[in-house]
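Standup notes
- HV: blocked on the assembly model, inputs below
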Amino acid sequence: MAKKWLEISVGGFLVAGVVALLALALQVSGTHMGGTSEQYQLSALFDNTAGLSAKARVTLVGVTIGEVEGVSIDSQTLMARVDMTIDSSVDYLTLDSSASILTAGLLGEKYVGLSVGADEDMLVHGDMIEDTQSALVLEELVGQVLLNLGND
Amino acid sequence: MVFNWLQSLGEQTLQGLSRLGAALLMLLQSLMVLPGPRGWQRLTQQLYVVGVQSFIIILVSAGFIGMVLGLQGYTLLVDYGSEQAVGQMVALTLVRELAPVVAGLLFAGRAGSALTAELGLMKATEQLASLEMFGVDPLHRIVAPRFIAGLISLPILVIIFNLVGVYGGHLVAVEWLGVHSGAYWGNMQAAVSFSDDILNGLIKALVFAILVTWTALYQGYTCAPTSQGISEATTRTVVYSSLMILGFDFILTALMFGGL
């Protein structure tokens, strides 16, 4: 019996290691299981993304519904192109939805906030969100305030 | 005078090199032979001694370290109004640094010292010599299963350390101090990358496992067969492996995260 208990505990130890690694991958690093078939892609052009990076959250009324796939510069318009993947369960984003880049807290990470409009038609895979609002860049904001103060 | 000094320097260097060579040979020799039919059984037994018996100390220290990180992170970040970032801070600190290093140090104290003392006593009571008399290679029979058990155990202990630590931080930051639970996990998941952070931490754990187990086995195998010799070898195991863990941690961190 003592021998058996030893082997059981070693087996349990190994299983605990594998389970903990899985839990780390899913819960801590946010790796998603399963294919990409349950998601669709949208993109948007922004004047300034202020350092938005890949894997940032995409939210609707504060609930995470997807993530940023990548940020690149659109060479024709010289604007920042943000590609996003959205869970396919969220199929109620209207054509006139708007996207803005927001900051969680004062020093928190950047994320994309979507809000839904009133249009009848919905955004589908590959569409582009037209109505965008860029990130607030602190220096520009301070500059504007100083300018307004000077005009008074 | 100068010649004497040069001579002693050269002598010590040669001695050190030959010890390193002997340690390397010991390791290679013990691992070159394929495990016999009872090899798995011996490995299981050593996994129990080295891994399972270190489980509780890892669990308890991981919990407390995670809680301290949550508390410290919160009091630091709340001044800047960004206490949601505490999850990210706890997870990155644990996964990249604290889990491999602290688990490695505890492992050296808990398992490394026991291995040295065990082998030292086997040597002092001439068990190793009698094995050889029977025609059994003590390197293959005694050293190899212990080395492999150490190599398997420490990475698993580090994985568990990470997970328990993150939940310890969650307990303090979210349950007691009121950080939003979604923000805690969300920030963490956005910041921690599986391949860059978690796997690099595990590579560190594997390197530390090699260092600690190898040092412990070599010190035990070559110690003076007296009670004082065993005690000195055990002390050396803990001191050497702790220093090596800290030194190699800097080198590995510089290579992995320092952009070198």
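- HV (later): unblocked. Residues 6 and 230 of chain B are 32 Å apart (CA to CA). The longest helix of chain B spans residues 86-124.
- Next: hand off to the docking folks.
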